[in-house]
Write a structure and sequence with these properties.
- This protein is mainly alpha-helical.
- It has one domain (9-59).
- The protein has two helices and no strands.
- It has helices at residues 10-32, 40-62.
- The model has no long low-confidence stretch (mean pLDDT 78).
Length: 68
């Protein structure tokens, strides 16, 4: 399932995609960096990732983009 196949529930699907994306980035940076510490910076970044995913999901579901 890709984001291009999503027609409904853009808010929810975008939030889930944003959450998955930011968790993967957090895990990768934790493995390469100082370890798994959850501080205020990490929480803010997770929240920003979810909000960005929600906005992207809303835009994707509301505006029909012609695909090839």
């Amino acid at each position: 399932m890709t984001t291009s196949s999503i027609k409904k529930n853009g808010l929810f699907n975008g939030g889930v995609i944003g959450f998955i994306y930011i968790v993967l980035i957090y895990l990768l940076s934790s493995l390469l960096g100082n370890g798994f510490t959850l501080n205020m910076y990490s929480i803010i970044m997770i929240a920003i990732g979810i909000v960005a995913g929600v906005i992207g999901g809303i835009v994707r579901s509301k505006f029909k983009i012609k695909e090839k």
